[in-house]
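To whoever is on call:

I kicked off a structure prediction for a single chain this morning and the downstream step that reads the tokens threw a length-mismatch warning. I double-checked the sequence; it's 72 residues and nothing unusual in it as far as I can see. Pasting both halves so you can look.
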Amino acid sequence: MDLYYVNNEAHKTGKHTVHKVGCDYFPTNYTYLGMFSSYRDALKKARAYYPEVDHCDQCCSVSPNKVFFNPR
């Protein structure tokens, strides 16, 4: 589970961005969203503050280079 925040300042597109703690692009003006197991859940919460939100491509996307262990 990770801590998520939403940028209070919208991008030129009008969207606010959701970030995890530790992101290289973490905003200076933000609202705490909470602890979530998925950025998708954080996006749902962020929509309570702003109608137009998106996730940060750097900290919230699954990298194609990551390897996940599936024990099944």
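Update from on-call: the warning came from a stale cache, not from the record. Cleared it. Sanity check on the structure: The longest strand covers residues 30-36.
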